[in-house]
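User:
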Amino acid sequence: MAISRRIFIQRSLYSGTFFLGAGLFSQTWAAWPSAAFDETEYLPALKGLIGDQELLDGHVSLQAPEIAENGATVPVKVSTDLENVEWISILGDKNPRPWISRFYFHGKSKPFVSTRIKLRESSHVVAIVKADGKLYSTKSAVKVTAGGCV
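Assistant: Predicted structure:
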């Protein structure tokens, strides 16, 4: 059975796209800090996330409600005045999996995150910002009246 030129080009493009995508995903997954994601305690998760680097205070603004009626949807906003921000991570120190999320930034993008997180119980929400190879953090206490994590 002869394959037309059009079908040959289409299949070549599909396979090339597949192999290119597979190569990009393997690089992305290689940098994923799975040690932090798999932890069930706050301090080991924090260590898996930042290693032995020191956390500096200041330059990070975290807005979270003092009282959250429903732990399943707690609004959180994180911003910073730092430049060259690589990522922002959010942790909940009493969650079953403390590391909640990480947001990556590129170049001149504005380092601002607005999201909703789940909290199991009343705890601290911790925001960590990596900029110019240094880590900055702040935390805010949130009282939860109805838990959101099992």
